[in-house]
Amino acid sequence: MEEVNTGRRYAEKLDEKDPLAEFRNRYIVPDDVVYLDGNSLGLISVDAEECLDRVVDEWKELGIKGWKDAEIPWIWYGERLGDMTAPLIGAEEDEVVVSNCTTVNIHTLIGTFYDPFKGSKKIIVDELDFPTDHYAIKAQMKLKGIDPEENLIVVESRDGRTIDEEDVVDRMGEDVAIVFLPSVLYRSGQLLDIEYITEEAHKRDILAGFDLAHSIGVCPHKLDEWEVDFAVWCNYKYLNSGPGAIAGLYVNEKHFDSMPALAGWWGHEKSTQFDMNLDFTPAEHSGAWQIGTIPILSSAPLEGSLRIIREAGVDRIRKKSVRLTSYLISLVDKLLKDEPYNFRVGTPRDAENRGGHVAIERDKEAYRINRAMINRSFITDFRPPNIIRVCPSPLYTRYVDVWRFIDNLKEVVQTEEYEKFEQESEEIVY
């Protein structure tokens, strides 16, 4: 990216040259809002709404016959959406299925692949994980009679923002069964080197699993090429499939003979599923890790969203994401670093180590400044103790939106507008 000019016209010129600009028209962007929170909840697209409407109509017209007679038969919906997702993570179609929620998928995959009775009892995580990953892993350890206090290895951060991959590798002893890490750290936006971590884990006969919640749809992956063992993710961030949408999982085909820890009837082989045999016969692919009946209405929006993402191409999405976040970082450096602003970037500056969002830090008043920006209709989110997370989602965020955000952030600090908001409370701040 060329030397950044801090003027608005420079941002407008970038938008004029943006090869993905037309995709913004496929999303329903609220009027008079600059939406920069797609790393928490992506916006709805026209395509997603159309798919949801179609499924509702199928329910009206077909009733129970929709399980077999819908445009995409509902009985296969999880597998078909998995097929559409597979290219985004570099996997074969039968290795991916849309099912459950992210936490449930962590439970079932950790429960499946964690067998402390084979000798290795420890699992490696990191201290900057999203909490649900730790909750699920600790619960699975306890279910197997293993004390997490003794056997959960938590890799510490050197700087409070990032995790050094070498620190992860250093903890890979003979007593480790699994390393389970996020692809992108939810606070700082650091993108971990999945390929390297997996390679080092396999050298020591350790399984490698990842939570792709903050990378799928905005960062290309090559899970098969990297020989990742398993992965989970949500679909409501960069995959824009709606609040509480169905999640997804990946199981490398070399593990298809493993028995799912949380067996449920939707993971039964389809040809005999309705024989109602009391013995569980798992599907011979990732579909075996489905548990309960797929929620069709909360799955349909993903179909429309995946159509757009595949049309745009994840490589082009990643290219624009890097340009947007680089532009944002440059503006912070040029305009907001010194007094009275005192902002700094807590996200890795090397694009290869950065996901799709930027953590903007300020030692004092970050919470109230974020509240003031939301009041101005700039939708970002706050993460304690001092982070304003800003996500320029490539398919609907313009460069001029980023410029406007920075310009308004300057004004909020200059005028001390944030002082009219109360100090941090228990309310959710997006």
TrEMBL record:
GO cellular component, one term: cytoplasm
Cofactor: pyridoxal 5'-phosphate
MF terms in GO: kynureninase activity; pyridoxal phosphate binding
Keyword Oxidoreductase: no
Keywords noted in UniProt: Hydrolase, Pyridine nucleotide biosynthesis, Pyridoxal phosphate
Matches recorded under InterPro entries: Kynureninase, PyrdxlP-dep_Trfase, PyrdxlP-dep_Trfase_major, PyrdxlP-dep_Trfase_small
SUPFAM superfamilies named in the record: PLP-dependent transferases
UniProt record similarity statement: Belongs to the kynureninase family.
Quaternary structure annotation from Swiss-Prot or TrEMBL: Homodimer.
Protein name according to UniProt: Kynureninase
Organism encoding this protein: candidate division MSBL1 archaeon SCGC-AAA259I14
